[in-house]
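4.2 Preliminary Data

To establish feasibility before requesting continued support, the project team ran the inverse folding procedure on a target of 295 residues. The structure was first converted into the token representation described in Section 3, and no sequence information of any kind was made available to the design step. The complete token record follows.
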């Protein structure tokens, strides 16, 4: 994967709440109003309110992109050696594709998600989460949450190294945002309530479509005028497919030493995840990602 060395990264939709520089002020899950604010936030989240909104007084932990602006400036010739700069470049490329052709193809109205880096734990409109859950998207506040430490785990524990494996993960989470915009996510939640016995099957359809959307972006990356990604190689595509397989439910179950039990799967097998990433990557068309009918 090659990036445009001369292009400025757009940090307007990025929040950096990592520990250390400009991170948490008062403990690991700092929120504006301290412990009380936390409880209020969680209760509101349960009621379905968007508690993170645009009101800065109710924002979670403080964040600043000053450090990112410096590390990822065009004047730093080594900026793409940093995972956070690569992730922002991929994020901007995803915004470029999905904000134009991608949502047009699906007939959906586009709005940007935000990308929030954190360490250890984070408070969200979906409740509190620790890094242990891995990268995730919260529809309630339309944010993608990533502890960059996950990528060490992806490389070492899941055996999926490579810069494009990291791009795939972010593209998958971005795919969940697109599902929120199209209403597919809401449709799945409704189906799950109506048919609780099929809850996991519906979850798998949701996850496989996000994999497919990651593939669609891969095909279209480097296509736009504002594209930060200049090229994607066959090697990159391979490492994304490898990563999709590595986080398949069967692989994770094998990896954690337990038995492999398809009944408990929520994301799909390695073979299914590879298949749907490939479907999107071959077609480059998000309309090819009809995982619900296929399931
Ligand atoms: Zn997912």
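Position-by-position output of the design step:
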């Amino acid at each position: 994967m090659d990036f445009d060395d001369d292009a400025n990264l757009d940090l307007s939709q990025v929040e950096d709440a990592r520990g250390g520089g400009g991170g948490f002020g008062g403990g690991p899950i700092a929120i504006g109003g301290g412990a009380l604010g936390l409880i209020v936030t969680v209760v509101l989240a349960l009621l379905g309110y968007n508690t993170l909104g645009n009101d800065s007084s109710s924002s979670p932990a403080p964040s600043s992109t000053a450090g990112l602006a410096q590390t990822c400036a065009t004047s730093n010739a080594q900026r793409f050696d940093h995972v956070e700069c690569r992730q922002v470049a991929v994020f901007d490329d995803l915004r470029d594709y999905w904000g134009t052709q991608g949502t047009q193809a699906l007939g959906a109205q586009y709005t940007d998600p935000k990308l929030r880096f954190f360490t250890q734990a984070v408070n969200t409109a979906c409740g509190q989460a620790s890094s242990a859950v891995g990268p995730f998207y919260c529809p309630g506040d339309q944010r993608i949450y990533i502890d960059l430490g996950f990528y060490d785990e992806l490389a070492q524990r899941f055996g999926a190294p490579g810069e494009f494996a990291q791009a795939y993960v972010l593209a998958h989470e971005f795919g969940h945002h697109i599902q929120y915009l199209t209403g597919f996510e809401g449709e799945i939640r409704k189906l799950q309530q109506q048919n609780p016995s099929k809850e996991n099957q519906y979850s798998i359809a949701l996850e496989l479509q996000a994999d497919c959307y990651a593939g669609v972006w891969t095909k279209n990356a480097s296509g736009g005028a504002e594209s930060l990604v200049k090229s994607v190689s066959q090697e990159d595509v391979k490492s994304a497919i490898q990563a999709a397989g590595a986080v398949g439910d069967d692989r994770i179950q094998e990896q954690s030493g337990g038995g492999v039990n398809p009944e408990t799967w929520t994301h799909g097998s390695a073979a299914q995840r590879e298949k749907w990433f490939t479907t999107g990557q071959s077609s480059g068309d998000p309309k090819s990602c009809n995982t619900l009918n296929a399931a």
